[in-house]
Amino acid sequence: MVARRRRSFSRELNPMLVKELRGRMRGARAFMMLSVYLAMLGCFTSIVYALYFNLTSTPGGWGAVAYAGKVLFSTVVLLEIFLVAFITPAFTAGAISGERERKTYEILRTTLLPARRLVLGKLGAALAYVLLLILTAVPLESLAFMLGGVVAKELVLALAVLLVTAFAVAAISLFASALVRTTLVATVVAYSVVLLITVGMPLVLGLVAALGDPIISGYSSVQMSTTARIVLMYTFFSLLSLNPITASILTEVVLTEEQAIWLFRVPVGGRSIWVPSGWIVYTVVYLTVGIVLVALTIRRVRRQETR
Amino acid sequence: MAPVIETRGLTKRYGQRLAVADLDLVVEEGSVFGFVGPNGAGKTTTMRILATLLKPTAGEAWVAGHSVTKDRRAVRRAIGYMPDFFGVYGEMRVWEYLDFFAACYEIPSAVRPRLVNDLLELVDLAHRREDYVDSLSRGMKQRLCLARALVHDPQVLILDEPASGLDPRARVEIRELIRELQAMGKTVFVSSHILSEIEEVCTHIGIIEAGRLVISGPLEEVRRRLRPHRLVRVGLADGRAEAARAWLAGQEGVAEVSLPEGDGDLRVAFSGDDAALAALLAAMTAAGFAVIRFYEEEEGLEEVFLHLTKGIVS
Fold first, then answer.
1. Residue in B closest to A109 by C-alpha
2. Which of A260, A261, B46, B235 could be cross-linked to B293 through a Cys-Cys bond (beta carbons 3.0 to 4.6 Å apart)?
3. What's the predicted TM-score (pTM) here?
């Protein structure tokens, strides 16, 4: 009977989701933020557009215009990934710690609202707003369609990477918020992780690639078995796919050069191996990380009820 | 009557510090139980344990028959808890605030609007329905929080210092609300560090000091136990105070007679019921004393409280 009761109630909206959305969308703040975000993105797009057409004023026919379309699209998407990665913690890093700081957490914990609904409501509300940011920028990305060179597939893949990024970053921040006592510390932790993933990793990867490339391609004097080379190759592509920027670029390159969305061939020491496209690895890894962190957050919120 | 709140050997230890020590408490159904003690006596800790927010180090507590450690969900359903310090969601409208908590208590959305209006009516905030919570005064926020504690129609209300930091009018309003809650059949467990603040609404009193329950029971009984003698003031028209003092000292039921400096009136500590007191007055006039004042002095519980807790604090 209890189970049936619970099921009948879950048809009702998550109260935390409703509350958070009301708070978030109310007043000028949400609107201002959206405007600033779109203005930034718009400015940047215009600059890229202008720069590119100034630099390539030499007539290159349709090919050059199509290439311009690709550059424009890629720039907007990459910038968007950055913006989403850095805006999302602002919505989620205070989710739990903020309730603690505002002294509203205790009252909330004495209600019947389960930890699961509390956390999912917070997550849902934050993601809903980020989704709004992502969707409102679609017209900007679509500018590229006027120039050509970009296909709908690319737009869908870009959206997938963006959504996964938003989810993973939200989950990381939410977990930080449940883990530490103050929003300040939670924010610092969340941004550190985001910075590590978006900026730190490409730096390390670039270094590794520069050092490792001759070895893998067999130009180096270091002797390596084919198996070792294959392992190294997979490691390299996996690392490449763990960063949203490099994963997107890899996906784009594979799509353009190999006309492949899912898998592509890489020659290694006379043989060739199948490697999954960047977005697949990225999506699978970060969805998993996100789900695990959300589960841990729920567990943590539940456990604190009997501190 | 059945106990709605019961604790047995309830103990809470924070490291070396003992916040609640072996507390045995019984709150009967339908009563307004005043939980009184100085700041830091363990009132809030006890209430937080009852509200399922803290785990006791030892001992057990039951609310409405449910164990606060084993059946937290049932306890939460049975209680409305108002902490001593709490925040509100300032960016919400008053009705949204109540609607949110009603939803948290799994009240279907179809009945919520009506419920919210009824509660706002109860705490006299119906006219502020559409205002933001932040715009309310402190007393209003306190009342809103009380309404919030009532959304799921709980059997017991646990109110931690509901009147602290309020102006006199707001205090009176909270007192009136507590009376109303009792009339609605709810059990109210209310704490205060100022006894006189809640004395007049309570049916029962428990005094806690340094984590231990000093005394507890019905208000009158507590009064009687704390003050076994009635204090009678006797004024004479002819100034024969010394003679009266000697005479009174020999009467039955008189424990002590004193003659404080100043007003010249006698203070008689008397143990006995009203009839015995009336007989004493009759005997006194019959003995030829010109009695012009003969009345019982009401000693507030405040003095009793100070008298009681003084020794333990120092």
1. B53
2. B235
3. 0.84
